Amino acid sequence: MSKVRIYTLAKDLGVENHKMLEILDGLGVSYKSVSSTIEEDTVELIKEILAEEAAAAAAQPAQAETSSQRATPAPSSGAQAPSAPPSSQGAGAQTAVTEAPAATATADEVPHRAPVVTIMGHVDHGKTSLLDYIRKTKVAAKEAGGITQHVGAFEAKTSKGRIVFIDTPGHEAFTTIRARGANVADIAIIVIAADDSLMPQTREAIAHAQAAKVPMIVAINKIDLPQADPEKVKTDLTQLNLVPEEYGGDLVVVPVSAKTGEGVEDLLEYISLTAEIEDLRADPKGKFSGVIIEGKVDKQAGVLATVMVQEGTLHVGDFLVVGENYGKIKAMTDSAGARIKEAGPSTPVQILGFSTVPASGEKVQSAKNEHAAREVIATRVDVRRDEENARNRRRGPRTLEDIMG
Ligand code: GTP
Ligand code: MG
Q: Which ligand is nearest to the CA of 171?
């Protein structure tokens, strides 16, 4: 045994990554990220420190464990660790630390929010199948009243908390939304079929994720196929300067099969881990802001818009402003089709109440009442007209000057 990655050790010992970094800082050990490796000697030191802390905590039975300050998104934080075989190494420190209750955040701290994940990749590499598998196994079947309206996003419940997936054709959603200056995705999953390796749209997807500066996780799919060659995918990635962790780089690569489900649990775990490192937070009590994922007209219901809540909380009855239009939320459903009255950060909701179809990627704001909504729009119209006029004025004389000059 030589070196070990920080997050692997954190997982093995059942402590949060932040806690692990704190200890390393205390020891004066340098690292680049939680993907960095540390020496075995350091591992031993860390175990000793944790064991001491656990002993100290045990001596004060009534005190809540404060070793990890962050409120984890999942109520079942640490639920994985106790299931590790008791004989696994470092068990002494492990049990003591993992039995600590999830520490509570101080009241003024902005709470964590669920990660929003988008799936991209080449045609037929299995994006939809992978999402379908996750949806089937991780989304409670609560299709209220049999409503199966397609919502361009869904929420998966995992042992590590909620994960929100954007379920529109990857590139399209990602690029149109980003082109309007909004970033909805926190993490990009690049799906690469193990029998096909890197293809043009895979490279495109990688470029999109890099341009958006969103962390990437590669899912090598279709590993159940006899002709699957995951090693080739890894080598090909390395040639793009994306070096998988097992080759000493930082890229997380998870082999999966959307058909058998193999590796999907690992993928979800890596998503949670990445989210934890990203430290995603949003205030449900803050001012509302969101983004349109998609808008459409339903023959029966009328205009429907899928909105991703990013900050604050939406309530039925709220007035929303999108571009130069506004609407009042008449009804709201969650991604499983159930009617809801309010929705907090990282929640995709379908909204009934707009009169015109909003475009993907448009930013959504709330207004106190109809009057306020109209005022916001009037200001926007004024600004736009001023800009148009200024542009037209500039265009006239300048062309003349250009000609003269
Ligand atoms: P587009 O939306 O057209 O870009 O394709 P996609 O990436 O969503 O791929 P999709 O999920 O539609 O899968 C394409 C084909 O591959 C289908 O026939 C799937 O059944 C098959 N497929 C997907 N994942 C797997 C897998 O893990 N194993 C095997 N054997 N087949 C798979
Ligand atoms: Mg598809």
A: 1
Helix axis angle for 264-278 and 17-27, nearest 10°, is 60
Kindly report the CA angle at 114 between 344 and 322, in degrees rounded to 5? 45
Q: What separation in Å is there between the alpha carbon of 184 and the centre of ligand 2?
A: 20
Å from CA of 333 to ligand 2 middle = 24
Residue-wise pLDDT for 257-304, tens only, equals 999 999 999 999 999 999 988 889 999 999 999 999 888 898 888 899
259 CB within 6 A, ligand 1: yes
Which contacts qualify for 175-181: CB closer than 8 Å, 24 or more apart?
A: 175/208, 176/359, 176/360, 176/361, 177/291, 177/293, 177/360, 177/361, 178/208, 178/211, 178/212, 178/361, 179/361, 180/359, 180/360, 180/361, 180/362, 180/363, 181/361, 181/363
Torsion 232-133-260-74 (CA) sign: positive
Q: Would the annotation count 147 as a binding residue? A: no
Please choose from 129, 221, 233 the residue to mutate so as to test ligand 1's pocket, defined by most ligand atoms within 8 A of CB. Answer: 129
What's the gap in Å between 193 CA and the centre of ligand 1? Answer: 9
Please list the alpha-helical segments (H only) found in 99-169. Answer: 127-138
261 is in an annotated binding site: no
Q: At what angle do helices 6-13 and 91-98 cross, to 10 degrees?
A: 70
pLDDT tens readout for residues 375-385: 999 999 999 99
**pLDDT tens across 120-163, in order?**
888 899 988 898 898 877 665 444 433 334 556 888 888 778 99
Calpha distance 239→217 (Å, rounded): 17
Return the structure tokens found at 399.
Answer: 């062309």
Residue whose tokens read 């999953």: 189
The overall longest dimension of the chain from CA atoms, in Å, is 88
Q: Is 224 annotated as a binding residue?
A: yes
Q: Do the annotations mark residue 347 as ligand-binding?
A: no
Cβ neighbours around 289 below 10 Å, total: 17
Pocket of ligand 1 contains residue 202 by CB under 6 Å: no
70 lines ligand 1 (CB under 6 A): no
CA atoms within 13 A on the CB side of 361: 13
